[in-house]
């Protein structure tokens, strides 16, 4: 029968832990020695026990091996210049931006009804919801613009009607003045009285233009009073 697997965890019994340490340490050093001989590798092994004792193995001078390790790690850390690091950073950012652009282009194509073959049912439902929301917002904005334009046209219509009514009233007054100017001289008193009444009506019409009337029905009634 083969040996069962040992659970890898700290051994609580001090005696058993020390025995296991000695066995594993010797086995580790044996493997390091075999690796150095078989593969001609430079190996340095340092082990500190729980009691603080040091155990080491090296097929060469252990100090020179450690110095070689320090130089190798230092060269690796300084091998990249600032320019190379920046170049790598910008390359990564450029790659991310290209991916985002591709995703946006694909999303726009999907909104136009293209490239739908790669979408599943859930993605199709989400796309449909996005399109419906977009159409709702577009229709609301369109309705708002139509209402604003209609209100502006109504205001312009009221203003033009007021100006037209004032112009008609002034034309009629001018016609009456021309008719009175053609009357005999014996009727000067009647002419002056009529002229004074007409001037009063003109002043009232001017006051109406200064304060625009926004109700169309009231405007028509006011104009009839002056006809």
TrEMBL record:
Query: Where in the cell does this protein reside?
Result: Nucleus
Q: Which GO terms describe its molecular function?
A: DNA binding
Keywords attached to this Swiss-Prot or TrEMBL record, sorted alphabetically, are: Coiled coil, DNA-binding, Nucleus, Transcription, Transcription regulation
Recorded GO CC terms: nucleus
Q: Which SUPFAM superfamilies match?
A: SRF-like
InterPro entries for the chain:
MADS-box/MEF2_TF (IPR050142), MEF2-like_N (IPR033896), TF_Kbox (IPR002487), TF_MADSbox (IPR002100), TF_MADSbox_sf (IPR036879)
Q: Which residues form the MADS-box domain?
A: 1-61
Record-annotated K-box domain positions: 87-177
Coiled-coil regions, chain positions? 80-114
Q: Does the keyword Transcription regulation apply?
A: yes
One Pfam family it belongs to: K-box
Task: Note the SMART domains from the entry.
Answer: MADS (SM00432)
Question: Which PROSITE patterns does the annotation name?
Answer: K_BOX (PS51297), MADS_BOX_1 (PS00350), MADS_BOX_2 (PS50066)
What is this protein's function per UniProt? Probable transcription factor.
Any idea what this protein is called?
Uncharacterized protein
Organism whose genome encodes this protein: Penstemon smallii
């Amino acid at each position: 029968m083969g040996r069962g697997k040992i659970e890898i965890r700290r051994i609580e019994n001090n005696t058993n832990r020390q025995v296991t340490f000695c066995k594993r340490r010797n086995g580790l050093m044996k493997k390091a020695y075999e690796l150095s001989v078989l593969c001609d590798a430079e190996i340095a092994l340092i082990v500190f026990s729980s009691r603080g004792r040091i155990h080491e193995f090296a097929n060469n001078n252990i100090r020179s091996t450690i110095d070689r390790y320090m130089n190798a790690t230092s060269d690796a850390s300084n091998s990249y210049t600032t320019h190379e690091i920046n170049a790598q950073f910008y390359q990564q950012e450029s790659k991310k931006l290209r991916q985002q652009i591709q995703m946006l282009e694909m999303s726009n194509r999907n909104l136009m009804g293209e490239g739908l073959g790669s979408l599943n049912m859930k993605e199709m439902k989400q796309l449909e919801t996005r399109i419906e929301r977009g159409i709702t917002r577009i229709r609301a904005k369109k309705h708002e613009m139509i209402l604003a334009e209609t209100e502006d046209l109504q205001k312009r219509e009221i203003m033009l009607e007021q100006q037209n009514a004032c112009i008609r009233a002034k034309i009629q007054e001018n016609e009456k003045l021309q008719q009175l100017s053609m009357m005999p001289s014996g009727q000067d008193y009647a002419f002056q009285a009529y002229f004074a009444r007409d001037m009063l009506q003109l002043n009232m019409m001017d006051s109406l233009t200064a304060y625009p009337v926004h109700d169309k029905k009231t405007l028509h009634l006011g104009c009839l009073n002056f006809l």
